[in-house]
Predict the 3D structure of the following.
Amino acid sequence: MQEKVDVILKEVEEAKANTQEELEQFRLKFISKKSVVGDLFAELKNVPNDQKKAFGMKVNEVKQAAQAKFKALIDNLETSIQGGASDHEDLTLPSAGHTLGSMHPLNYIRSQIIEIFERIGFNVADGPEIEDDFHNFTALNFPENHPAREMQDTFFIEKNPDILLRTHTSNVQVRLMQKQKPPIRSIMPGRVYRNEAISARAHCVFHQVEGLYIDKNVSFVDLKQTLYHFAKEMFGKDTKVRFRPSYFPFTEPSAEIDISCQICKGDGCQLCKYTGWVEIAGSGMVDPNVLANCGIDNEEYTGFAFGMGIERISQLKFRVNDLRLYTENDVRFLKQFSTLH
Ligand code: DAH
């Protein structure tokens, strides 16, 4: 009897578990109810009375040894699974190092634009990407048969009444004017969607920043000065800015804003199509109809608005000429911006 106990004790002491399975085998053999230790307890009743006490103590000793060993085996196995040092590892090797992520260029440009406008008193507003016809088109004075409403430009989610993916951030202007009394001085960055085939020069998802300033006596001079300031802050103080007459349904008068080409500094190159100028934004005085559509008294208030593409600004800053790069998440592209913060 005594011998049998000693054999079991020795087995417990020498046991090893390199895998979960081996650990489970140990548990079944030495810890569970039907284990060999359990059998020893069952045999207690066959031991002569005068030896019962000594045998009982011995079996208890085996039980405790088995439990202690089980715990040690668990600890051991966990450290080796978590990559603890084993005999095969060379602790003197240098570590593999950590790869840090970097800021996406569009996020960087977006936060630069926000910073510039925040410093002159604009706050940031947000609005939905899934929009109704009223906020994306009707309130903004789009005539019923305007081509931008047609299927080739807009992703419709539902028809009659129309629910769509916003085609520009101008929808946030409308929402802002509906819920806030002037003065309003906000910029509205966001993602917009158009039903375009994806190529180097067009994408169905891109980003804009909208600007809106509504107060008493806001004039075209305020618009010009604000955007001069922006262009010089963003591209440097030698940057030239020009306003070109244009048309948008929601502004009157309207203007497109060009800056001197950042690549050739005005000498003429492929990017500026040899004109020396590149367009960065659309803008204008908010059409009185739009103010009225949004519940703002157009006798008392005037305002200006502008909208620019973040990808466009990024193209001029970083010379990224293929729009697809922004959404492909190729680390070879993204890594090139690792110094931005
Ligand atoms: N919504 C125009 C677009 O997507 C951009 C724009 C032009 C916004 C003039 C404006 C603006 O607020 O005044 O092309």
User: Anything to note?
Assistant: The pocket of 3,4-dihydroxyphenylalanine is lined by residues 168, 170, 210, 248, 251, 282-284, 305-307 (CB under 6 Å). Residues 18 and 48 are 41 Å apart (CA to CA).
